[in-house]
Amino acid sequence: MARKVFYSFHYKLDNARAAQVRNMGVVEGNPPASDNDWESIERGGDPAIKRWIDGQLSGKSCAVVLIGSQTAGRKWINYEIETAWKEGKGLLGIYINNLKDLDSKQVFKGQNPFEAFKIGTQNMASIVKVYDPPGQDSNLVYAYIKNNFSNWIEEAIAIRQRY
Is the full-model pTM beyond 0.90? Predict the structure, then answer.
């Protein structure tokens, strides 16, 4: 059975990189919102955005944070992390900075977004695994993610079940 996952990422900066991961076909993910759909959701303000995120998280067993250069600390990514954890979903991060975007550019490695959260007295970053694919070659980074993705998801779900 293929797992269903929620993808969390910085849309404006990392959409092309995230699309590569989403389109690997390893797991079923939430459908992306088109620019027009997202503009419509945003017009509804914070309550509408929360409803949309909550709806996208529904029925998913894991949330995957795709980490680019400016992912950490973003309001809605933080909300997605908090909500996924509270709902008992597996949670993991993957650095995607070395995947090329549509302009064939890579970006610098951003901060671990889980460092901002605590689970009791423990830092979430010491619980939630974050994977940093080795190398600088975008094709090799892609292959590494694709080859390991389903195992990472299963591990994230198992880790979450212990807390």
Answer: yes
Name, in order, each residue with C-beta under 8 angstroms of 155's C-beta and a sequence gap of 6 or more. Answer: 92, 129
Parent domain of 135: 4-161
**Which pLDDT value is given to residue 9?**
96
Give the mean model confidence (pLDDT) for residues 9-22: 94
Instruction: Report how far residue 98's alpha carbon sits from residue 6's, in angstroms, rounded to the nearest whole number.
Output: 21
In the block, which residue shows the tokens 């797991």? 27
CATH of the domain at 28: 3.40.50.450
Token reading at 57:
């998280």
Rounded-to-10 torsion of CA 5, 11, 17, 18: 10
Region of 59 (left: φ > 0; alpha: ψ -120 to 50; beta: rest) is left
Question: Which run of H or E residues covers position 92?
Answer: strand 90-95
Q: What mean pLDDT is predicted for residues 89-116?
A: 97
